[in-house]
Write the structure tokens for this entry.
Amino acid sequence: MKKKKASYLNLFLTMLKIGAFTFGGGYAMIALLETELIEKKKWIGKEEFLDMVAIAESTPGPVAINSATYIGYKTGGVIGSAVATLGVVIPSFTVIFLISLFYDAFLSLDFVGRGFRGIQVCVVYLIFSADLKLLRQLERSVFNAVVLLLVAAVMLLSSLFARGFSSALCLLLCGGAGLAVYWCAPRRKKGGDFS
Amino acid sequence: MIYLELFFAFLKIGAFSFGGGYGMISLIRETVLSHAWMAEEELLNFIAVAESTPGPLAVNMATFIGASQAGFWGSLAATFGVVLPSFVVILIIAGLITNLLQYKGVAAFLKGVRPGVVGLILATAVTIGLSTLFSFSTVGDALRPDGAGLLILGALAALHLLSVRLRKKAPSPILMILFSAFLGILLY
């Protein structure tokens, strides 16, 4: 597939559009990116798109921002990546900033407050089902099960006993565990159970 | 200074949120609660707002907290902070180390992080669930079940199952939020 060059304005407007229409987070955005970037604009090939998704998902930060920066760089260098990132952020920034101006007045309405008590239950449900979805994608291995249960137990207990335990530190320790298993594995047997 | 405080708090969120979407929920919760920028219920309310508006949760959260704490410049500082780590890391990967993910060490690190993220979200979900539905947040609290809340939870699960059975996919988050808002007005 032939790749086309993008002008900064075109890049900015495309990302603005994507930023304005991605409800429900990064994964919804990937489908939109695919039609927009591969099929319509032809800025990036299928192979490279899949690479981009893998990178965006495994580096820190929102998937939407990561993808925009990556595509911006590939189509227009450092300035391109700045333009693309700005474009994808502006819609949500504007919408949320406007909402913040009226938010408290809106929530103080009686029926809105009651509605939001129902919504709070829904958010708990949404977080649970998002976690279940991630759990299903996780490879079944002893290592994954041990890390998952240990992290969940430590974080839950520290919160129930009102002791803060930093989740950033927790993830660093998990990464460290991944490295430790990798370094120890070859000595036991080739590859180990951690493949 | 509040602008710097916002900037660095959200810089940390941007730098340590793996997994996208709810992957950042525990770090966001920890940050806003410890700075007393939001109470637990306010956080849940805002997550629903963020789900119903465009853009990533972390960016929406940064903009909103920034605006509520320090107006326009506050929201700019927080949003800049949350975006910066992604921007820098991706630039480095796209421009300099194109095969970063192929390094065995990086891959091994991420293999450890992945189940960790699932565990973190699980712990956050259970913590928030206990405090929302049972008013139970620390050991010693009395367990007070919220009947209306449990009813709504059941209704959501039924809606979910029904949608999967009939339309072969989960209902959209916005539909579930509207449905639970309706039940909330009815039941509370």
Residues 139-195 of chain A form one domain.
